[in-house]
Design brief:
Belongs to the glycosyl hydrolase 1 family. The chain is an alpha/beta fold and 461 residues long. It contains 15 helices and 15 strands. The protein starts with 10 loop residues before the first strand and ends in a 13-residue tail after the last helix. Bound molecules: beta-D-fucopyranose (FCB).
Length: 461
């Protein structure tokens, strides 16, 4: 397989997030996040990783920026820790916390790398979580205030912004199933957390623009839902799951409507007015893609563990295992064409309402420390599928792989490795993997318009 050529100006990047990398969980006046508290509960982090150290990014960010520069990356998507900037969740700013991002942005700019910060990648300030987190409408307003304060300081140098990362995962894993912070098990009563994150997004777009920031998007996870079986119950289960995980978030943002009147009726507050805020036009739309999902009618033999997360019984759909594909070391099926499928769905569903797309996350867990040929194969397949989607008329402007370095994979701890760069968690030493050299050569070949690469052609890191 070769890596196709992408349109001129296509942006090549890598992604990361604050909780997963920074460490320094209480340095320089940082407040605790809901994830700090959740991870400290016994048994929450499956492999017992001490999440307070991350990858040491807060100390070693210059090393990681040098690694990005070595890749020839155009852009770096990182996240800003809300409790580092506003330790109490509301009220005064922690200047020392914001200084860190100021330094990071300067370092990136000095290397010609576009800083693309995400304002919320799941680390809610603990005091807000304790007051109900995203179940509480007030959290949305506090988020917009924080977004405005960050933009006041950084908008002069940051040309690309992301409000919120994957509100679907926060809602499902954090509020419905209790597998992530804040560990609530509300099932369908978790829906207000979805609405308030969407409201927070819309309010933050306004606040960012008011503070002079432009080029704003959101990162939503998308998984094409495949129907298991061919009964009406199977189709209903798959459709419900598709609505809940894909369109409950994309539709309000891009069309100003919820996809389903029943779910809309469960949302709190002045929903119609909120939807006007939520659907404020965006400059671009971020897609995180990992794999499709196979769903049918609820059945006793439905997967009780999906992507490592347990699913309770009694849900109105049943998730099944996708067979016949390679799997990553997370057990996720490797289905590159699912990326083209998901982008085609977005184009068909939203037409002109879909702004230019960036892939803001795509990658895989591979355990091999350095010889990660399976990651190269994964990324090659997905870039091929991405090019197919572009040829089919989807306006995709850039690709951020997840992730620059190995990092703390939430409740999986350090045991799932998504990085182009290996982290030794004892020493925090960084070692580029084979995929790092490969990605560097892909980016270089795009620049020179040189021949596409074939596996094995790249020089060692
Ligand atoms: C996404 C998250 C990201 C990372 C990848 C593997 O859902 O946004 O932080 O954990 O999955």
């Amino acid at each position: 397989m070769t890596v196709p050529t992408f349109p001129p100006g296509f942006l090549w990047g890598a992604s990361a997030s604050a909780f997963q990398t920074e460490g320094a969980f209480d340095a320089d006046g940082k407040g605790l996040s809901g994830w700090d508290a959740f991870a400290a509960q016994p048994g929450r982090i499956k492999d017992g990783t001490d999440t307070t150290r991350g990858t040491g990014f807060h100390e070693r960010y210059r090393e990681d920026v040098a690694l990005l520069a070595g890749l020839g990356a155009d852009a770096f998507r990182f996240s800003i820790s809300w409790p580092r900037v506003v330790p109490g969740g509301s009220g005064s700013l922690n200047p020392a916390g914001l200084d860190f991002y100021d330094r990071l942005v300067d370092e990136l700019c000095a290397h010609g790398i576009t800083p693309a910060p995400t304002l919320y990648h799941w680390d809610t300030p603990l005091p807000l979580d304790e007051a109900g987190g995203w179940l509480n409408r007030d959290t949305a307003y506090r988020f917009a205030e924080y977004a405005g304060m960050v933009a006041e300081r950084l908008a002069d140098r940051v040309p690309m912004w992301i409000t919120i990362n994957e509100p679907a995962e926060v809602t499902m894993l954090g509020y419905a199933l209790g597998e992530h912070a804040p560990g609530r098990t509300l099932l369908f009563d978790a829906l207000p957390a979805a609405h308030h994150q969407l409201l927070a997004h819309g309010l933050a777009v306004r606040a960012l623009r008011a503070a002079g920031a432009g080029n704003i998007g959101i990162s939503l996870s998308h998984s094409p839902v495949w129907t298991a079986g061919d009964t009406d119950e199977d189709r209903a289960g798959a459709e419900l799951y598709d609505t809940l995980t894909n369109w409950l978030f994309a539709d309000p943002v891009l069309t100003g409507r919820y996809p389903d009147e029943g779910f809309a009726a469960l949302m709190p507050g002045p929903v119609e007015d909120d939807l006007k805020i939520i659907s404020v036009p965006l400059d671009w739309y971020g897609v995180n893609y990992y794999n499709p999902t196979l769903v049918g009618a609820p059945r006793p033999e439905a997967l009780d563990s999906f992507s490592g997360y347990s699913m309770p019984s009694g849900l109105p759909f049943g998730i099944r295992e996708i067979e016949g594909y390679d799997t990553t070391d997370f057990g996720w099926p490797v289905v590159p064409q699912g990326l083209a499928e998901t982008l085609g769905q977005l184009r068909d569903r939203f037409g002109d309402r879909l702004p230019p797309v960036y892939i803001t996350e795509n990658g895989c867990a591979v355990d091999e420390p350095v010889a990660d040929g399976r990651r190269i194969a994964f990324l090659e397949g997905h870039l091929e599928a991405l090019r197919t989607a572009i040829d089919a008329g989807v306006d995709v402007r850039g690709y951020f792989t997840w992730s620059l370095t190995d990092n703390v994979e939430w409740t999986e701890g350090a045991s799932k490795r998504f990085g182009l760069v290996h982290i030794d968690y004892e020493t925090l030493r960084r070692t580029p993997k084979e995929s790092y050299a490969w990605y560097r050569d892909v980016i270089r070949a795009q620049r020179t318009g040189g021949p596409s690469l074939t596996p094995g052609e790249h020089a060692p890191g």
